[in-house]
Task: structure prediction
Amino acid sequence: MKINDIKESMEMAPEQFQEEGFLQELNRMFLHPAGLSMALRKDDNGNKKFVVFDARKHTEVGLIYGLEDDYDEKELQSMIHKHYTVSSVFNKFAEPRKKYLKKAYMPLENIPGLQDINEKIAEFQKQQARENG
Result:
């Protein structure tokens, strides 16, 4: 399915995204190692929205679950359950995606217009080196 084919009726409520474990795994596997964290918060009107916290300037190792947090057994079991729930969804799609894309994740070179990705990455790195002295 193409991104442009997604319909509004397919929208997942933020609470469901959190309850099913996708928020936890997005944080644990991608955002936390980069010093970022996403959370679901209520705004002043009581509506829930996602917020992103940026701790990149305050950490050398990113964010880590459990260092200061005191999880009880029920919370730990919930975290484990969410991990397995998301893993099973990922695994359900992984094999068909590998057949279609050759990988479970979409390689950048498969995105139209990025065929020469290695050249573009090298040029970006040169530019960053020039800007950083």
In short: The mean pLDDT is 86.
